[in-house]
Amino acid sequence: xxxxxxxxxGDHRLTRRMAAWDSAWARRLLPPVEEAAEHTxxxxxxxxxMATGGGWRGRKAAAAGIAGMAVAELxxxxxxxxxxxxxxxxxxxxxxxxxxxxxxxxxxxxxxxxAAVAFTAAVASTWPWAGAACAVPTVLVALERVHSGAHYxxxxxxxxxxxxxxxxxxxxxxxxxILRLG
Length: 182
Prior knowledge:
Elements: H1 2-19, H2 24-37, H3 41-53, H4 55-83, H5 111-126, H6 128-147, H7 153-181
Helix pairs in contact: 2-6, 3-4, 4-5, 4-7, 5-6, 5-7
């Protein structure tokens, strides 16, 4: 019980610290990242760019990324959020205006982070250079979710785990089907 209390308290402290992070860099960069990540717009654009400019490998990476993102959204938003009801961080902890624009759904896990990580992991398994390029906005999305007060760091960590699992599942599925049919 003491370990859980320590983890919860650390999660709360880190949430307050990250939300209070007041740098010009964060104020300029994170709100546009949030807007781009809303409704997975950022990842659909990345998939379109890969599919149109990356030849066969780009189309394969785009399809893998979209599939990974779909699996992660299903797992995080349709399953995990229904199983774990967690309130968002208190508005009093968030010293900036972003706190007014938060979803009403459960805080746990971060669906934005799950989708971003799954997209990136699935793309990276197909086209490593494109995956590396996608990793930069993925990290920014994860940071933004805590900075905006939408999530606790543990919500984001759970989103990362779900995203990695979804990306691995998408990567392994063709081989599993072939083994099953063979």
